[in-house]
Amino acid sequence: MIEPIPAAELDPAALRGRRVAVLGFGSQGCAQALNLRDSGIDVAVGLRTGSASRAACAELGLLVETPESLARARDVFVMLVPDEAQPALYEGVLAPALRPGAALLFAHGYSIHYRALRPRPDLDVLMVAPLGIGEQVRRQYTRGRGVPGLVAVHQDATGGARALALGYAAANGHARAAVFETTFQAETETDLFAEQAVLCGGLTELITAAFETLVVAGYPDELAYFCCLHEVKLIADLVHSRGIAGMRRSISSTAAFGDATRGPRVIGATSRAAMRELLAEIRDGRFAAELDAEMAAGAPTIEDARRRAEAHPLETVGARLRRHMPWLEEG
Ligand SMILES: NC(=O)c1ccc[n+]([C@@H]2O[C@H](COP(=O)([O-])OP(=O)(O)OC[C@H]3O[C@@H](n4cnc5c(N)ncnc54)[C@H](OP(=O)(O)O)[C@@H]3O)[C@@H](O)[C@H]2O)c1
Question: What does pTM read for this prediction?
Answer without folding.
Answer: 0.94
